[in-house]
Amino acid sequence: MAANGTGPSLQLIDARQDTRRVANWAAVTGTTTNAPRNVLPLDATWRYWQEDGDPAPGWTETSYNDAAWPRGAALLYVENADLPGPKNTPLTLGPMSYRFRTRFPFDGNPDGASLQLQTVIDDGAAFYLNGRELGFRLGLPEGVVLERDTPASRTVADAILEGPFVIPVDNLIRGENVLAVADPPDQPRQLGHRVRPERRCP
Prior knowledge:
Blueprint: E1 9-12, E2 25-28, E3 32-34, E4 45-49, E5 71-73, E6 76-78, E7 89-90, E8 98-106, E9 113-121, E10 125-129, E11 132-138, E12 161-168, E13 175-183, E14 189-200
Parallel strand pairs: 6-7
Antiparallel strand pairs: 1-2, 3-14, 4-5, 4-8, 6-14, 8-13, 9-12, 9-14, 10-11, 10-13
């Protein structure tokens, strides 16, 4: 939070942890030179993989050819309950895990940028920007290599809108970017994201 956008401010490190702990806050100096913008709306169109086998290697990379993957607008779902957004694309119940890819443009300054993620996830997810995993997992164990059968570390009855989670990135590019998501096993599930990049200068 910042009073006027200049000078020192405090930034929450991990919204999933106790916000009353001093160690969960960090001092930030400088001003935001990229005004936050919504580059990926909650009902964005995604390519998705829901086959029993794994997709071809490199599925998180920008150069990966996902033309054969089905596509649909979020929320992508297997759920009868109401959700915090339109249920647009039904998924097939049963796969061990799902993979999702989408593209978004960015015309700001990528230096020192961070992403603000708001998610509708059941139960967990790992996020990849332009082929590299972000330093943030939701409902997944940290520090382990994710396999197709890696279980989520939490159980969500019905997904809610969570975040925003602020994630510093150094591989956001001016032009087209690829956001990929691995959704581990557990049922039912929903997926949707809202992404807003911003930039802070030292």
